[in-house]
Write a structure and sequence with these properties.
The complex is a heterodimer. Chain A is mostly helical. Helices cover 74% and strands 0% of the residues of chain A. Chain A has 7 helices and no strands. The longest helix of chain A has 34 residues, at 72-105. The two termini of chain A are 37 Å apart. Chain B is mainly α. Chain B contains 5 helices and no strands. Chain B has helices at 2-17, 24-57, 62-65, 69-91, 107-139. In chain B, helix 1 (2-17) crosses helix 2 (24-57), helix 1 packs across helix 5 and helix 2 (24-57) crosses helix 4. The N and C termini of chain B lie far apart (41 Å). The chains are: A mainly alpha, B mainly alpha. The interface between A and B is large, with 47 and 58 residues.
């Protein structure tokens, strides 16, 4: 869902700024089906999950293609798999950064903090990105700052897939 | 760009020294991926913070657009594609240089890699802080 800010409309109706922002936040939460004041991030998580799935297929292609009897084509598919794998790992990192920024921009500071820490661990100590992924799973399993089962499940699947990919693709 | 290439070559050499995926092709590919993240995160966070700032500055024009989550995904994909293409092209001329696992193996070289990671992440945190500050300013 494309959630647009209703702030200008509220301002045009003569509301003062804080009230307009509160109403805008409430409306955006209502539009996204979240009445708790916490953003579900479903679109970004779904995108992350999709990219994780695409990346996993790239990993599979990279590892399986050299063992096939396709001649020069096996090398082509291995290279293609490697390219897909590498690109999707980076895009997945970008999605994490975007999630943190979006959470920060919508006042969901718990999610923003946690996602930033996870990203920081991935960036600065990539070997320990595995533990970041496991911590994210634990965070989601415990409810974290999300109240919706679907969102938490989606997030857990994304983090689980990312963790698995780090284990496989980065050679842990 | 020269600094980025220096960091890339040190990353590539470090990948050649590790115990997994240390073949030239995979080490090269992984070094590009790492550089993509190092460069992409600051670029993405800068664009996001700038957009938040413009939304606050022009609430009746840019503010109307808001920050659609679908657009964020498209932005990430676009930035990823552009940076990956530029970096891949930029470092391609160094592929035939005689870099081995013994190259760039001093402590200073390792520190340069760590510094690059820390600078990238610190910049990202600063952008997060700016986004939070803009959000709080607009709410009060």
């Amino acid at each position: 869902m494309l959630a647009q800010s209703p702030l200008p409309t509220n301002l045009a109706q003569g509301n003062n700024a804080p009230t307009a922002w509160e109403q805008a936040d409430a409306l955006m939460r209502a539009l996204s089906g979240n009445s708790s004041g916490q953003d579900t991030m479903s679109v970004l998580e779904a995108a992350g999950l999709g990219i994780g799935a695409v990346g996993s297929s790239g990993d599979l292609l990279e590892y399986a293609a050299p063992g096939t009897n396709l001649g020069p084509a096996s090398r082509f598919f291995a290279d293609l798999g490697q390219s897909i794998s590498r690109s999707s790992l980076f895009i997945g990192t970008g999605i994490s950064a975007a999630s943190a920024l979006y959470s920060a921009g919508t006042g969901n500071y718990a999610d923003a903090t946690f996602t930033s820490i996870d990203l920081g661990v991935d960036l600065t100590l990539s070997r320990f990105g595995l533990y970041g992924g496991v911590a994210a799973l634990a965070f989601d399993a415990s409810g974290g700052s999300k109240n919706y089962i679907a969102s938490a499940t989606l997030s857990a699947m994304y983090n689980g897939l990312s963790t698995l990919r780090k284990v496989c693709a980065l050679g842990f | 760009m020269r600094i980025l290439i220096k960091v890339f070559l040190r990353l590539y050499a470090a990948n050649l020294r590790r115990t997994w995926r240390q073949a030239q092709g995979t080490a090269w590919s992984d070094a590009i991926f790492t550089m993509d993240s190092l460069v992409g995160i600051p670029v993405l966070s800068s664009i996001y913070a700038m957009w938040m700032f413009l939304m606050a500055l022009f609430p009746t024009s840019i503010g109307v657009l808001g920050i659609p989550r679908g657009a964020v995904v498209v932005l990430v994909l676009m930035i990823g594609f552009i940076i990956d293409r530029l970096l891949t092209r930029g470092v391609s001329r160094y592929k035939n240089e005689s870099i081995t696992s013994d190259s760039y193996s001093t402590t200073a070289d390792s520190m340069a890699i760590i510094a690059a990671f820390l600078i990238s992440f610190t910049y990202f945190l600063i952008m997060i802080a700016i986004v939070v500050a803009i959000h709080k300013t607009l709410r009060t």
